[in-house]
Amino acid sequence: MIEVKHSNNEKNGNFEAFIDGKRAGLMTYTWAGEERFIIDHTEVEEAYNGKGVGKEMLLASVDFARKNGKTIIPLCPFAKATFQKHEELQDVLVNQAQA
C-alpha cells in the first residue's frame, strides 16, 4: 500500500510517497498566487518504478486541489502526460485563458 504525505507552506510544497515506511517518491510544487500551484517535479525511486507511485502522488495533489478550490499547472512532464491520459482529473487544471 502506498501512503502519501503532504507538506505545504506559503511558497511551495510536496507530496511524498511511502511504501512500508520507505520513501518511494516525491512530487514537488510551487505556488503561483493563492489559487493555483505548479507541479514542477516528480521522481520515483528506481525500486518502485511501475508500481503506481507517481500516479498516487498526482491523485493526492488533485484531491488537495479539489478540497481547497485550487487549480493545477502541470509543468512536470509526468504530471502533464498523466493529466492528458485521464480526462476525469482535468477539472483541476488551470484554464489556458486564466494562465
Give a written overview of the molecule.
The protein is built from two helices and five strands; from the N terminus they run ββββαβα. The mean pLDDT is 95. It is of the alpha+beta class and 99 residues long. A five-stranded mixed beta sheet has the order 1-2-3-4-5. The protein has helices at residues 53-68, 77-85, and strands at 2-8, 12-19, 22-31, 36-44, 71-74. Helix content is 25%, strand content 38%. The protein starts with a strand and ends in a 14-residue tail after the last helix. Keywords: Acyltransferase, Transferase. Residues 7-94 form the N-acetyltransferase domain. It is an enzyme of class 2 (transferase). InterPro entries: Acyl_CoA_acyltransferase, Gcn5-rel_NAT, GNAT_YJDJ. Its EC number is 2.3.1.-.
Throw out a few tags for this protein:
38% strand; alpha+beta; 5 strands; five-stranded mixed beta sheet; 99 residues; 2 helices
What secondary-structure arrangement, pairings included, does this model have?
Layout: E1 2-8, E2 12-19, E3 22-31, E4 36-44, H1 53-68, E5 71-74, H2 77-85
Parallel strand pairs: 4-5
Antiparallel strand pairs: 1-2, 2-3, 3-4
Kindly summarize this structure in a few lines.
It is built from two helices and five strands; from the N terminus they run E-E-E-E-H-E-H.
